[in-house]
Amino acid sequence: MERKIDDRTILDKFVEDFCNVVEKHCRYIICSGFVAIAHGRTRGTEDIDMIIEKLSKEQFLRFHNDLINAGFKCMQSDSGEVIYSTYLNKGNSVRYVTNSDSYAPPEMEIKFPKDELDMEQLRQRIKLPLTQLDVYFSSVESNIAFKEEYLGTDKDFEDAKHLRIIYHGKFDEDKVNKIKGEIKRLRKK
Fold first, then answer.
1. Could you tell me the pTM of the whole model?
2. Which of 36, 61, 74, 163 could cross-link to 41 by cystine, CB 3.0-4.6 Å?
3. Taking a C-beta distance cutoff of 8 angstroms, is the pair 53, 22 a contact?
4. In this structure, what are the phi and psi dihedrals at residue 114, rounded to the nearest 5 degrees?
């Protein structure tokens, strides 16, 4: 599957604009549903999931201010200190949207790494050329494993099936199974 530049969607532009700010401050990955959508799967989504490396409060405040200056707004609070202390630092996610009068999709849901699984995804991040997006994703293997082993909704199984078709013969099934084992060990206690 090859996407043309003129096939860019609102989600594509939103993701690239947001990631352009994020990469000035920290490592990140896009994961979950948008990975399948970026590979041509047709399905609706209102949010894009992003894991960013853990930042200190001072680092996060600079990051948050750059997002505000780039035209984004946090739905939970305007205060970077509140976002950091009340949400991110306590293991919760926050959502950013474009700064407009209404909270309308798309939304970027960001969170800090939950455990070693998330840290490993950040270390193994990759740009997936088939998407024609200049952003970092979690690996195809990680996405398949999480969707099949951890998330497990019908939509997740369809996303994983789509990625298996797109990357047939180009991903490591042993790595998928290893990640599934780590999910069982760390997330399904």
1. 0.91
2. 36
3. no
4. -85, -35
Domains of the chain: 8-139 (3.30.460)
User: Cα separation of 182 and 180, whole Å?
Assistant: 5
Alpha-helix residue ranges (DSSP H) falling in the chain: 10-22, 33-38, 57-69, 80-82, 116-123, 140-145, 154-166, 173-187
Strand 72-74 with 47-52, pairing:
unpaired
Please report, in tens digits, the pLDDT of each residue of the chain (189 residues total). 343 444 567 889 999 999 999 999 999 999 999 999 999 888 777 789 999 999 999 999 999 999 999 999 999 999 999 999 999 999 999 999 998 766 667 899 999 999 999 999 999 999 999 999 999 999 999 999 999 999 999 999 999 999 999 999 999 999 999 999 999 999 976
User: Which two structure tokens, joined as six digits, stand for 187?
Assistant: 């997330």
